[in-house]
Structure formats: C-alpha cells, structure tokens
C-alpha cells in the first residue's frame, strides 16, 4: 500500500505528474492538493482503471492536512515557473514562501513521508524544507530529496542525439551531479554508459555540457512566455518517484542522482567531501536508495580535468543557493 501525494497537482507539472503516478500500479492512493482545481483533476484521474484511489483537496477545511494524511511519498511541484518579467529573486521569494508553508504542513501531518522537491530553485528549496523540519524536530535527511532527474533525462537524450540514435536514449545513463541550476549542473560525460563518438573534440564536449546545464532555457524560449518545462519534468519526476517507491518496497541496488543533505549518508558523506576537497552540506550525487530513503551516497568516481573545473565552478554558487534557503527560514522566525 503506497499513498503518493502531489502538492501543486493542478499545475503544468502537477497534472501530468499526477497522471503518471495514477498509472503506477504500486500506488494505491493518490492525494492531490493545490490552491485551485484539484477536485476536477482528481475526478478526472479517478476514472482511469488503475489501482490508486484518488482524492483531491483545496485549502479550505484543512485540505492540506486531509491530503497529506497517511502519505508515504510527497512530491512538490507547487510554485511559479520562470516567466518573462519575473526576476530570479521574485521567483525565489514566491516559491520559498510556498515551499515553507507546504513543508510546515508535511512536518505536522506526514513527518515520516519521503519528500521529493521539484519547486525551483531546488538548491534553495530543499534546505528550506530541511530547516522547517528541524524547527518541528522531524528532520530525517534520508527522506528528503531534490529532484534533479530532468537533468539526467536530458543528458541521456542529448547524448543519444549526438550518437544519431534516439532509440538508445532510454538505455543511456550519464551521472549528473552538483546542483540543479546553470553552472551547478555538472554532467559527468566521461562516465556516460554510451561512449561519445571518436573525434568528439573538447569544444563539442563543452557545447554538450552547456546544453545539459541550460536545457531548461530551450523550453522557456520555445514556450515563449507560457512557462518552463512541464511534460518532460513530469516524466522525470514520475521516474524518480517510481525509483523511491521501488526502494521502499524492498528492491535493492537502485541508484539515482539526487540533491541530498550529506548527513543522509551513513558516513556523513565523508567520502564525497574528500573527493571534492571541501566542506559541504548539500550536493547532488548518485545515491543508492533503500527502504529508509537514502541508503548511501556513492562516490563520484574518476573525473576528467574538465569535469573537475566544472565541479570547482559549481561549489561557490551552490553554497550561496543553500545559504539563501537557510537564511530565508532563519530570517522569518
Ligand atoms: P504552474 O504555474 O503551471 O503550476 C504550479 C501550481 O502550483 C499551480 O497549479 C498553482 O496553483 C500551485 N500552487 C501555487 N501556490 C500553491 C500553494 N501554496 N499550495 C499548493 N499549490 C500551489 O508551474 P509549473 O510549470 O508546474 O512549475 C512548478 C514549479 O516547478 C516551478 O517552481 C518550476 O520552476 C519548477 N520546475 C522544476 C524543475 C526541476 O527540474 N526540478 C523543472 C521545471 C520546473
């Protein structure tokens, strides 16, 4: 029995993500919450002939608590996407407040749930959830994840495109580490499961890396003011949620990159810190999932000199983003 909850379920990501979770046969209950339209989305999805019972609530009458009751896994795509006229700071302030309030609800009603944060900026919203959970005395780093799967999905697709064979995309895996915005996104293309073509020059590698780091911009531009990635994000979010669910149900050996607190690792992420050579609190790294959430953080392995420079470039930005999230909560106490 798995109850999955989507907070922000009526949005551009929320609706297709809820659809994909409804089609996951392991999900037996699906709780949908948003400030608009959830009863409609829930009624619509409830007609699909898969096991999940679907419920949808709005804020009145404790809708958030009702949705979260008994949740095993909570996915959060609530918030505003990038749009023309919205600065990064505007976006941060709006989404930080939304995530803070939703995290408070989770801390009160479903403190044992696995929490998967999609709302941007992930590098800051994950620390916001952690700080709220700490305030409520329910922070368990093993159960908190920033969803960076879209970067991983893009890396597989773009490598397959370079190879001229999209048919290979589903089987190509490229670890993407660091964080989840711009320079903090570090694809380890030297560890791609499918080798890049011989003659792939440093310039080509830099272009491909840049495309993975800024893939979101392609979608924002093509949508021309209508928002950012929603369908590919829903796919990526459902993929990651399904891995977490399989791990909860006891499947072993599932590894996926995700943005986590280093205390989630049994050894406190010491091996990763050693590889990177810096003190760190949060990082996106390949994580082995288990019934308790994070089973261990995997080492990054051998990096090329180019990949080392990418990690170096990511660290200061990552630290600033994390600090911004932490300060948002400490300042609003
Ligand atoms: P959207 O505007 O289409 O949907 C957001 C939904 O959140 C709306 O239905 C809205 O009513 C709801 N919402 C707002 N405040 C709420 C609250 N207090 N409680 C519950 N629901 C609330 O936006 P979209 O495109 O679905 O994007 C959502 C978020 O996901 C954005 O922050 C975006 O930047 C982020 N995102 C993250 C990605 C990732 O890779 N992690 C990729 C793409 C987007």
What does this structure look like?
By secondary structure, this protein is α/β, with parallel strands linked by helices. The protein has two domains: 2-146, Rossmann fold; 148-328, L-2-Hydroxyisocaproate Dehydrogenase, Chain A, domain 2, CATH 3.90.110.10. It has helices spanning 14-22, 38-46, 63-68, 88-109, 122-135, 149-162, 202-213, 215-223, 231-248, 270-276, 305-331, and strands at 3-7, 29-33, 53-57, 73-76, 114-117, 144-146, 176-178, 185-187, 254-261, 282-290, 293-297. It has a six-stranded parallel sheet, with helices on both faces. A three-stranded antiparallel sheet has the order 9-10-11. The longest helix has 27 residues, at 305-331. It is globular and about 60 Å long. The model has no long low-confidence stretch (mean pLDDT 96). 1,4-dihydronicotinamide adenine dinucleotide (NAI) is lined by residues 7-8, 10-14, 33-36, 77-82, 95, 98, 101-102, 118-120, 122, 147, 150, 180, 227-230, 233.
- In percent, how helical is the residue content? 40-55%
> What would you report as the Rg, rounded to the nearest angstrom?
19 Å
- How many beta-strand elements? 11
What is the name of the CATH topology of the largest domain? Answer: L-2-Hydroxyisocaproate Dehydrogenase, Chain A, domain 2
> Widest sheet: strand order?
3-2-1-4-5-6
- Bound molecule types: 1,4-dihydronicotinamide adenine dinucleotide
**Name of the CATH homologous superfamily of the largest domain:** Lactate dehydrogenase/glycoside hydrolase, family 4, C-terminal
Total of DSSP H or I helical runs spanning 4+ residues? 11
